[in-house]
Amino acid sequence: MANLTLAIDDDVLKRARLKAVRESTSVNAVVREQLARYAGEDGAEAARRRLLDRARRSTAASGPGGRTWTRDELYES
Fold first, then answer.
1. pLDDT digit string, tens, across residues 4-58
2. Can you give the three-state secondary structure of the chain, one letter per residue?
């Protein structure tokens, strides 16, 4: 992956950082995703990247203690 240096207004960058924190992401990830869209990234690759970004930001879980059942318990009838 290549590094890129950008000149961005300080106020814009500050607001972008605050919004990124609220969305559990980074300015870098947002810029990377937008640039990929602009460049016409392959649809499947773009979908994969969005899925992975959402998974990283997700707060979903199996509860405070995690899973508490076994496979056998799930299939008991």
1. 999 999 999 999 999 999 999 999 999 998 888 888 867 788 788 889 888 888 8
2. CCCCCCCCCHHHHHHHHHHHHHCCCCHHHHHHHHHHHHHCCCHHHHHHHHHHHHHHHCCCCCCCCCCCCCHHHHCCC
Is residue 75 helix, strand or coil? coil
Inside any domain, residue 5: no
Q: Is residue 68 part of a domain?
A: no
Does 53 fall in a domain?
Answer: yes
Nearest to 54 by CA among 29, 37, 34: 29
Q: Which amino acid is at 21?
A: V
**pTM of the prediction?**
0.54
